[in-house]
Amino acid sequence: MNxxxxxxxxxxxFLPSFAQxxxxxxxxxxxxxxxxxxxxxxxxxxSIIAFAIADKNxxxxxxxxxxxxxxxxxxxxxxxxxxxxxxxxxxEKNTFEFVLSPExxxxxxxxxxxxxxxxxxxxxxxxxx
Amino acid sequence: MKxxxxxxxxxxxxxxxxxxxxxxxxxxxxxxxxIVKYNLSYKYDSSDFSKVHKESLLLIAFPKxxxxxxxNKYLQDxxxxxxxxxxAVLMNEIDxxxxxxxxxxIIFRNNEHISEIHQLMENFSxxxxxxLFWTLHEEVKDYExxxxxxxxxxxxxxxxxxxxxxxxxxxxxxxxxxxxxxLILELSDTKDxxxxxxxxxxxxxxxxxxxxxxxxxxxxxDYTRIAKRVVDDPMEYIREMAAAKGVTIAIxxxxxxxxTYKKRTTILNPSNPIEFY
Lengths: 129, 277
Prior knowledge:
Chain A is mostly beta strands. Chain A has one helix and seven strands, in the order αβββββββ. In chain B, helix 1 (about 1-15) runs parallel beside helix 5, helix 2 packs antiparallel against helix 3 and helix 4 (about 220-230) packs across helix 5. The longest helix of chain B has 13 residues, at about 220-230. The chains are: A mainly beta, B alpha+beta. Chains A and B meet through strand 2 and strand 3 of A and strand 2, helix 2, helix 3, strand 8 and strand 9 of B.
């Protein structure tokens, strides 16, 4: 009986616990911003621990394994808007609000051989048929 | 010439296939946010994996919806909506000898709602709601100067590997694949039957796109039945549709031996489908 209790206790101790962060993304005018990528990282580490895409109401929820004591970075990014990061420690805070401002779309280009224009009025194009 | 006659007849009797179902319309009348060009490599014939269909495809993103469309279809649309000065340039690109029938349908996406539009005698649309479950991996590679990260998922009988770019923060991708924290630049199934890869982006700020797609919404089961009938005996299918409109057609069935048409129908209804169910 004692052995069973010990095994269960050990299992509980070593089972990874889960944490959750949630929040909303808005424009400076206060409108909800959907389709924003929300990624969770350790600070200064590009590896993504978990992610979510904001829904049509600009809301998101991320569940992740709470296994780090490092500072965490919650990054909100959407093409055509400025990126924003919020840093926090596990357990310190779990609800966040981002406000993203519009900015020019600047897509990286892949150079390909024999570029052809998609349309005359579309600039900066490249591609191949 | 035979193929041309067949195409004209198909157009003439179109809408007949839907019979009792009334066509629906998808209207796109919006500013283009961006256009991404992909190339496709697809082993469509399960009896001969050396046959590879290649073509270019475009992902056109609007503020609220997106369209994944064969490159040639976009160019054809462009002739309709742009001035005649552009026609000369475009005609080179849609030269009939270069034009290909696409095995991929047009994909119209509105969040998780997808309309899969097949152009088979007339437009047939299969509506679906898709939520993909992605697993993110630690692997990172360089895709022509852009850092991409690996993610995997399963979809309708195939396992897929996607490489997405967190530096391009948009949850879009080719075909029906999306939902990652960055644009999908490369996607392939684990057998490499299907391989789609990014070839470039177009700076499209302030370009307007107008398109109306008239289609008959049917179930996947009904579409599969129609596609099989068209592939098995296209002339019989056309005759039936014409008869439903009170038109009698008499064409020599030797049109069926037209190799171009046979290849076209094989690609339209591939024996190695992208989706198994």
